[in-house]
Q: What sequence folds into this?
């Protein structure tokens, strides 16, 4: 084995052994991870960037040419140039992850795809005359055997479109309806969009419907965050202001439309050629999107107005795709287990796995589902927004400059998103920091932070980071002189408590789900971590602080935005759309706040494992 | 027979023989005509007013008490008091006609009615709790076995309505949809509305759906007349103004909504309790109503945008009934044979009659349908607006003060609508005047009006009415001193020509329909005259001027607003709604302007029969 090295790719969690002398790019191919390398690994294009964790080797001439000094300082290297000498952890960067997930989805859709529900017909119609006075409607419909009805906008626009295009048009048919008529031949352009409306993030996935191929995806902040980080503050806003609900609705649809416009602009796809949309989101977000009062979600017994799937025209909700196209808002399960969880269950195939699996979507709420052979049980825990960076002294969203990895040994090492100088700390950075602080003994198992005086066992480089600011103990991660904001970035005792509350809530949910089904951790075959947060946290850190139960690390699967992927599956496959309804109907929901034992589980789960 | 007299009721055209000594009210009962007489014919209530034509008998004390001198002067008498001494023509007044038609419709609906498509369920739902956290939607739907979907407005309003009514609500179910939810128990209130949108007149019929009973009806001027009397000027307006089509659409829906509001106000029916509507109208009116460009109807080859039935939500067209209720706009047949003609065909049962029948709806256009055992053939003739009173020197709509009957013997006798002093002349008055002028020789068979000099054969009382005004021959009907407007009301030579053009067009249409089917007048089993105009004209006058082919008068049936009645049938009976679609699909349309022979027929038909 002396001539082999082991390479682990994070956050995919895949490990391969390669012969010494092979590159990281070779290792990636062997692991089935598609790193985009248009030049074929010749050190010419500079696309195969990865981050090499904990090892530094001399920079190749190609790297010197293609990477900035900042990148090199942050461990960014070209996979084709880096020849590992020892076992190594390689971190995949955003574009690579994208590519990996895209490839995965493409493999998936080939299996999923049914008949594309949208058909297009290019027609060259005979113009009317006194001996052929058929109405425009009749002229069109009689050339389309399956279609029987014009939608109102087609009925309105048909006379003009026919005459402006010399009676050469493309009809877009869905079921027995003509949902659009376009000038000339547009038969090739048939798109759909899957949308995930998170409390914090909006994500959109543009799909070519006949092939099921993902064309592009993008995400951005949900502009509703201006009304509060959590759903409860937003609901409060809709209660306090007369037009608040409407404002909230307009804000989210505007955000979605902007996202859509951007995706269409850089792909060159015309928005009017998108004929179908699937939307997932938590229950409150789907209420807001449809302009439905969500106030009863804010008060016990937390009753949503609706849970079933909603099928509506794009024009009805002002979604800027083909106006008569259909939008499917996937069903919710309960007040705090929404359509996004249905998407996660779809994407992780929890509904048909043999064995016992848990899927967790960690965000402001931690929604989780336990799939056993008896069915699916779900619950939601109010993790609070700590994982989103809220209520944390230097907390921030997972955007450029956020500390997202922390390693503590003799000193503190950290990385930031996009390798920029640190501005603050995002959820995965916080989790890492706390886990590492516990590892080296800065925190005890109850979460208490040691004072400088107590921490005599620490090396000075760490010990001197312990201080008291505004009467509160804290641990300095980055000194002011080393960062963007010109002041120390530190973790406070209160930050640690916030994280403990959040992780305690989630862990309690997991324990209760298992308990309700008479299972223990040993019966668990795997945990899927969904969502951006779940995708980027270090699993060893999550295990160390006890966010997750003690399971072998290779049974923990980060699955990325599974909610969005579920929405894409429902977009591509009518069978999956139906499955989504079944899932929502059959899931058993547990209301944690109604369980007297919840508090005990919660208290126990707040501590760190010994 | 000496002790019997014959009483003919106009415009119903029913004749009965009664023993001398019986009253006109008795005669009406015998003829099956329901004259409203709450006092039972005792001369107490004064409700059984009729007009006695051409006979004057002494006024009874009851009449003296209950009638005004003006009424008596205009021939208005009480049916219960008037004991005919000779054969007599009795004219039924508006309220009586209403009652007659209502009774007729009620007899009809008993046969027509299927299962009412709307169901209402009063529900007393269990309020939510932590052990029953079902969504509001689920709570409602699980109490309604047939319903599966909430409509958007119900989804939006349900949380509020449930809580404001202590979870005691009435659900309105149509098919698998809940289209409304109302506070408390409203199970009894289920209404529908049938609407006839004429170029000139809007008519509405409010129906109690479970029983099929007509509750009320009303009509008013189509406010679009402000944009022109005929459809072509209105289409021109939509072409010339950027927002013209929208303006035209808003005008008609506002008119319909005002009509609806009035009907609901005086019946005490809540507009939100109307869940279904059927609408008929000519092709241009249905285009305007739906906001569809009708410009291609104005130019050869006169192509409509659509002809098929349109099913749409009330909210979509802003019709102020229950917003999620369904509106059916009945199908059109061709550019100038609209849904109103489909209504006429439905109401006259032309689609299943044995024998050959023609139904004519005379308005600005004369749409007509010939039903034979081989099917139905339709055409439309551009009669022009003469019958509506337009382009006539003293022409006016058939409203209060319009001369509607003219009798000429030694002198001119006339009646007006509501017995008011004459203000002008409406279509039926014009037709009467011309027919009578031809009868006594004031007009020759070509329609030429004799000059005073030529008319030496006339009695002086008539001859002195012939004069020349502004260089044009004319015949004075009412002297200025005898009328409201303080000036002579007369018929000009040009008025006669306008009428000739109008009646020539209609007669030519009838002849061509017969000819296309290889039929002659002798093969014809009857003619139905639909529409207000057809209902009120004197059939002998129509025959005298040759508007209708020479048929025995008792084979000509005035049928009132058959288009509206057809709409009502489709409202009450899903079977009839389907029948309407069949009729529109199967009718054979003849485009008269494409027939070279039309001009000949038209020229021949302009003259008066010798």
A:
């Amino acid at each position: 084995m002396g001539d082999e090295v082991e390479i682990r790719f994070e956050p995919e969690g895949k490990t391969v052994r390669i012969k010494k002398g092979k590159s990281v790019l070779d290792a990636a191919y062997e692991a089935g991870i598609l790193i985009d390398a248009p030049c074929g690994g010749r050190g010419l294009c500079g696309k195969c960037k990865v981050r090499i964790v904990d090892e530094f080797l001399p920079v190749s001439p190609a790297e010197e040419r293609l990477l900035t000094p900042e990148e090199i300082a942050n461990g960014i290297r070209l996979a084709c140039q880096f020849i590992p000498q020892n076992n190594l952890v390689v971190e995949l960067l955003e574009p690579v992850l994208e590519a990996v997930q895209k490839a995965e989805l493409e493999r998936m859709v080939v299996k999923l795809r049914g008949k594309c529900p949208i058909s297009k017909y290019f027609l060259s119609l005979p113009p009317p005359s006194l001996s052929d006075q058929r109405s425009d409607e009749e002229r069109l419909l009689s050339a389309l055997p399956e279609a029987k009805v014009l939608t109102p906008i087609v009925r309105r626009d048909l006379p003009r479109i026919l005459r402006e295009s010399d009676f050469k048009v493309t009809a877009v048919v869905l079921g027995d309806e003509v949902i659009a008529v376009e000038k000339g031949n547009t038969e090739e352009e048939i798109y759909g969009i899957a949308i995930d409306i998170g409390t914090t993030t909006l994500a959109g996935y543009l799909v070519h419907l006949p092939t099921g191929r993902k064309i592009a995806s993008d995400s951005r902040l949900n502009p509703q965050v201006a009304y509060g980080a959590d759903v409860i503050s937003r609901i409060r806003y809709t209660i306090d202001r007369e037009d608040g609900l409407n404002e909230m609705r307009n804000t989210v649809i505007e955000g979605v439309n902007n996202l859509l416009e951007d995706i269409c602009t850089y792909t060159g796809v015309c928005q009017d050629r998108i004929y179908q949309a699937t939307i997932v989101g938590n229950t409150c977000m789907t209420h807001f999107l449809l302009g439905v009062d969500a106030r009863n979600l804010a008060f016990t017994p937390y009753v949503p107005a609706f849970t079933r799937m909603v099928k509506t025209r794009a024009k009805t909700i002002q979604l800027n795709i083909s106006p008569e196209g259909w939008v499917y808002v996937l069903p919710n399960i309960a007040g705090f287990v929404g359509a996004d969880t249905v998407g996660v269950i779809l994407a992780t195939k929890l509904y048909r796995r043999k064995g016992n699996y848990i899927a967790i979507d960690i965000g402001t709420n931690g929604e989780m589902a336990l799939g056993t052979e008896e069915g699916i049980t779900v619950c939601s825990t109010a993790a609070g927004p700590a994982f989103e960076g809220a209520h944390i002294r230097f907390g921030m969203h997972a955007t450029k400059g956020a500390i997202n990895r922390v390693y503590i040994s003799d000193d503190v090492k950290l990385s930031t998103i996009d390798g920029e100088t640190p501005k603050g700390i995002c959820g995965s950075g916080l989790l890492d920091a706390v886990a590492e602080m516990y590892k080296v003994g800065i925190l005890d198992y109850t979460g208490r932070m040691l004072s400088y005086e107590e921490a005599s066992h620490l090396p000075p480089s760490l010990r001197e980071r312990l201080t008291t600011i505004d009467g509160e103990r804290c641990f300095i991660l980055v000194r002011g002189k080393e960062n963007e904001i010109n002041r120390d970035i530190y973790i406070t005792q209160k930050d640690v408590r916030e994280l403990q509350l959040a992780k305690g809530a989630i862990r309690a949910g997991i324990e209760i789900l298992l308990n309700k089904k008479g299972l223990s951790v040993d019966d668990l075959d795997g945990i899927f971590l969904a969502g951006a947060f779940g995708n980027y946290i270090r699993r060893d850190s999550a295990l160390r602080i006890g966010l997750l139960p003690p399971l072998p690390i290779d049974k923990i699967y980060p699955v990325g935005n599974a909610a969005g992927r579920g929405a894409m599956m429902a977009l591509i496959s009518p069978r999956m759309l139906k499955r989504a309804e079944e899932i929502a109907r059959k899931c058993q929901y547990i209301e944690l706040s109604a369980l007297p034992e919840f508090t005990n589980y919660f208290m126990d789960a707040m501590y760190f494992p010994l």
Remarks:
- The interface with chain A takes residues 128-138, 141, 149-150, 152, 155-156, 158-160, 290-293, 295-296, 300-308, 310, 312, 316, 332, 334-335, 589, 591, 593-594 of chain B (CB under 8 Å).
